[in-house]
Amino acid sequence: MGMQGEHRGRSALSEINVTPFVDVMLVLLVIFMVTAPLIQQGIPVDLPKAKAESLTFSEEALIVTVTKEGEVFVEGPQGRIAVTLSTLAPTLEELLAVRQRRDLFLKGDREVPYGRIIEVMSTLRRAGIQKIGMITEPERKR
Fold first, then answer.
1. pTM value?
2. Would residue 96 count as lying in a domain?
3. Strand ranges inside 25-122, DSSP E
4. How many Cα atoms occupy the beta-carbon half-sphere of 90 within 13 Å?
5. CA Rg, the chain, in Å?
6. How much is the pLDDT for 40?
7. What is the spatial distance between Cα 106 and Cα 43, in angstroms, rounded to a whole number?
8. Can you list the residues of the chain whose pLDDT is less than 50?
9. CB distance 74 to 95 below 8 Å
């Protein structure tokens, strides 16, 4: 009898408990906030500093990146392509054949030996690129 009296006063739980849902959403939000900057960063390159004014380049511009390990990548609207010095010129010729603009920028890590950058620039010249923009980081004022 005592047990039945305790159950009479309670009503059935008719609400959905959203606490676990909110917990999962907050965890997903934190994960996206942490990974979003990593996705946008691309190839990690420590750019040299320069005092020159910033230039703007279009989304269609091709960017040739040289990492500190000496790896070469071609980045553009088609995505990122890993190339070697021997495949760089044919890859660029193929990409530039279907484009109106021949904008090309070179982004080299500051730790890359100067000779490697010259090799890449020489290969770009052989591919018919006459103007090469160099991507640097602006110097911070102290």
1. 0.58
2. yes
3. 49-50, 62-66, 72-76, 79-83, 104-108
4. 6
5. 27
6. 54
7. 13
8. 1
9. yes
Contact of 102 with 93, CB cutoff 8 Å: no
Longest dimension (CA), the chain: 96
Q: Residue 132 and residue 102: Cα distance in Å, rounded?
A: 10
In a domain, 97, yes or no: yes
93 located within any domain: yes
Helices assigned H by DSSP within 54-133: 85-97, 114-126
**In terms of C-beta density within 10 A (0-12 exposed, 13-18 middle, 19 or more buried), how is residue 20 classed?**
exposed
Would you say residue 36 lies in a domain? no
In the chain, how many domains are there? 1
Instruction: For 72-112, write each residue's pLDDT tens digit.
Output: 998 887 788 899 988 988 888 888 887 777 778 888 888 88
